[in-house]
């Protein structure tokens, strides 16, 4: 490890940051996991929060009970209101960076509402600048709420064929899990996981319990359960090499997933 570090130090002094030798040395360097005992949970906006009290209240109770044994960073999706904003802004030909800001405002609203329901349990909402306080919240109450939308704003990378921001709340939550070196990434949705087709419209859709990123792309399922860029992020990740999608409408599913059980669909890097 020392030789790799010294070599990397010398390369950083002498080479361009795009130099192949430097990049290889950086790749070999050990990755430090900042929060290895924490699970990131993404609560879907359209699939879950938009359903209102009947869906959200039982999940709140489950989160409060689960935090006794598990540390959680809880990210929120944007949902239907963001889709409405995207539709209007796209019709006005606004660029992806501005749409990203609009989507972020809705995901933030959902995070704020969720945090208010969890406030009496000491669980708070942290915004972008407050992410540095996350370890303190986790140490004190084992949970914290954040907006799942990555803060790219005007710096959002445009999609190839659309004005819709390609990196939204699925990607934002995964990036948090990966950068903090977290234990698990769990997506809470209103379906059991990935199917061969949309189970809401196709009665012949077959459930897929486990699949790799490459297999999803080969089967044409790459844009059916998570935002497309998330699959490439999983493939390139160093810390979080798989994610699980669970049906949060079924009581106990989230708790079981936090405990490491396979209850939904697992998508793996390899």
In short:
With 270 residues, the chain is of the alpha/beta class. Helices cover 41% and strands 16% of the residues. The protein has ten helices and ten strands.
Supply the key terms.
eight-stranded mixed β-sheet; 270 residues; 10 helices; single chain; 10 strands; 41% helix; two-stranded antiparallel sheet; alpha/beta
Describe the protein in words.
The chain is an alpha/beta fold and 270 residues long. 41% of the residues lie in helices and 16% in strands. The chain has 10 helices and 10 strands. The strands form 2 sheets. The chain has an 8-stranded mixed β-sheet, sandwiched between helices. Strands 6-7 form a two-stranded antiparallel ribbon. Strand 3 (125-126), helix 6 and strand 4 (143-147) form a beta-alpha-beta unit.
């Amino acid at each position: 490890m020392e030789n790799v570090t010294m070599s990397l130090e010398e390369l950083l002094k002498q080479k361009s940051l795009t130099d192949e030798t430097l990049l290889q040395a950086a790749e070999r360097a050990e990755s430090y996991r900042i929060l290895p005992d924490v699970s990131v949970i993404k609560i879907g906006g359209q699939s879950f929060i938009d359903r209102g009290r009947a869906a959200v209240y039982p999940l709140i109770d489950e989160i409060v009970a689960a935090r006794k044994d598990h540390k959680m960073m809880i990210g929120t999706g944007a949902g239907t209101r963001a889709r409405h904003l995207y539709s209007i802004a796209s019709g006005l030909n606004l660029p992806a960076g501005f749409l990203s800001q609009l989507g972020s405002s809705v995901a933030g609203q959902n995070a704020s509402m969720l945090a208010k329901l969890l406030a009496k349990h000491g669980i708070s909402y942290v915004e972008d600048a407050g992410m540095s306080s996350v370890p303190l919240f986790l140490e004190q109450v084992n949970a914290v709420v954040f907006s799942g939308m990555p803060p790219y704003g005007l710096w959002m990378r445009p999609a190839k064929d659309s004005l819709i921001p390609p990196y939204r709340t699925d990607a934002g939550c995964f990036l948090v899990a990966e950068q903090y070196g977290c234990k698990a990434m769990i997506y809470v949705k209103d379906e059991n996981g990935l199917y061969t087709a949309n189970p809401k419209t196709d009665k012949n859709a077959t459930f897929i319990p486990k699949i790799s990123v490459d297999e999803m792309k080969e089967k044409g399922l790459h844009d059916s359960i998570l935002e497309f860029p998330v699959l490439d992020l999983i493939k390139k990740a160093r810390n979080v090499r798989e994610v699980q999608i669970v049906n949060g409408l079924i009581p106990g599913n989230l708790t079981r997933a936090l405990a490491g059980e396979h209850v939904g669909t697992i998508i793996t890097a390899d």
